[in-house]
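Encoded backbone
================
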Amino acid sequence: MRRALAGALLLLTAATYGCGGAPGAAPKRSGLPGAPPTLAPTPRGPAFGLTEDNAQLLDPPQAPGRAIAAGLQAARARLTALQPGYVRLLVDWAALQPSAASPPAVEGAVDGCARATGPCTGYRGIAAELAAIADQQRVARASGQTFQVVLVVFGVPAWAARAPGGCETPAAQPFSRPITPAGLAGYRALIRALLALGAREGVALSLWSPWNEPNNPQFLSPQREACSTGSPSLAPGVYAQLAQAMSDELRADGAAHRLLLGELAGYETSSPHDTSVAEFVDRLPQSVLCLSGDWAIHAYASYGAAASAGDPVAALEAALSRRGACGARARVWVTEAGAGAPHPGRQRAVGATDERAGCLALAAQLHRWSADPRVEAILQYSFREDPAFPVGLLSADLSRVRADYRLWLLYARARARGQPPPPAAQLCA
């Protein structure tokens, strides 16, 4: 299998990089003189993307004048072969702006490690990431294709956070607390700083998500005033402020931008410390629900004893449809998908059996979502594995290629040809 995968990888890497055959792409022409143009197939099924923030991994192989560390070259070739149409960047506001006296450090040095795991090659933060994406966009435009960035904000700086209160978990920190009026002004300034950086780097910042997992206490706390599910969730109201502020700033910018609302953790039931997808959507103000026709959900593949009979995507669609025309028309983006341990996010079991079981569970989700006309895109979290949430396609040290890599490689090829996903057994061979 390793030799066959390497052959497929070399074949795809030789192709033009970008989302395969986007609608509107220029027709391919036959090599015979006078032959009529041959139209490229229309891609079939949701677009593919991934989360990755290492600037060197995001660079296209053709990038001029930028050296790459030896340990990253093979990994970058593997990312290129997947032909993602979207890359998702997580913007940690708390890390970028620890002091209100200084602007967000969008060019601050980053070590390039995966939470202290090498190989590590430093780069100039979000600025370098956007510079790499700008190069990808130029390559894509030259072939009539697309490569778009999804910016997702999270993390409240201590100076912008409200005081403790409500039903918080023992581990709650300012990082997850609602923001003050001064914090909301800082949040708006962060958006303007990112827009200005995008303009300087020549990158189109088309997709924006106001906050990561606002129904999860790790990112927004407290979820409730009292520790009871009978206490109404506070999360929709706090999120509404952020979404409206981001919408206002993007509208003022004047360029073409789209909001991805929600970015919700896939909780199907509520608890004292979190908010279900349905409760969050039900309590969101109608004016905010209608800010965009695009909603994002996180849905991971579980298996074995941890397998879930539910589907967060179906839960989100049902909740949106109950909210009237704006919700019923909304498209759904699965912005975090992936497989790891039987309970996603926990430490992986060692061995091919568990890895294949996770791949098969992810393949089942992929087939279900590919048949759903409301699902616009599916984004793998992550490309290089995050040791804190190990569901990546490559291990954190980049030495191991997971079984799920083949799944997305074959899906990207089939989609570009206008074909349905291959059978699960073939995806996870």
